[in-house]
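2024-03-11 09:14:02 DEBUG pipeline.ingest accepted 1 chain
2024-03-11 09:14:02 DEBUG pipeline.ingest length=148
2024-03-11 09:14:03 DEBUG pipeline.predict start
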Amino acid sequence: MNSRVINEDIQLVPYYPNYKTALKWYQDPELCRQVDNRDQVYDLDLLKRMYRYLNTHGDLFYIKYKNRLCGDVCLQPDGEVNIVIAKPFQNKHIGRMAMHEIIRMAAEKKIPELHAVIYSFNVQSQRMFESVGFIKTDDEKYVLSIKK
């Protein structure tokens, strides 16, 4: 898997173990609530298990913004998408740009539909997914059909 350059500031970098950087994101209680609807932050063991699972079940990338890792995104073969942007990097359209690249990747892989589970209280993520074309199909499910 190669890096995918989105623009001069943003690229998707294939996953490699960088727990020191990533653990900081997942130690933010608000981010853990947004992503996993959990009130506890990740410890190193949970972070390693999550990354091991995502990396063996999909295409897992770090999101790099201006040469700094700021999040991660995974495209799973069934079309499920998972994305996390660290708090200091949110609201800069980094997630939108990363999602556009994931949509292109899904089209290349001939995945007909993408879907994401977004908790009803996570309005920020709902808006981001809707801005790239996802449609709310259930209380917490968002879907995007990939055009052929």
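2024-03-11 09:14:41 DEBUG pipeline.report The radius of gyration is 14 Å.
2024-03-11 09:14:41 DEBUG pipeline.predict end
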